[in-house]
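quick one before i forget lol
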Amino acid sequence: METGTERLRAALDELRRRFVERSAGRIAELGELVARIAAGADGETVRAARRIAHELAGGAGSFGHPELGRAAAALEAVLREVEAGGGDVEAVRNAFEAVRARAPAPAG
């Protein structure tokens, strides 16, 4: 018979698995947005990228991926600078590459 602790552990493992799966798609989407930003996209594209970075930053820490969380928070900060009229496309690219490099690998 499964205990409450075992059920909780299984539920948390499932949430972590879903986060990893979902983050792969969100990081791919973020990459497309970063490419559009590098090509001179509008403010809505920058805001969309910032929202995804913010989402990843929060979720990553909650689901055991603090390095991804820090990298996503750094990207979010760079995107805020771009939104404010500053920032640098190369900094956006570099921050995105840091996010991509820290993406959790899906379970096998």
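fyi The chain has one domain: 4-101.
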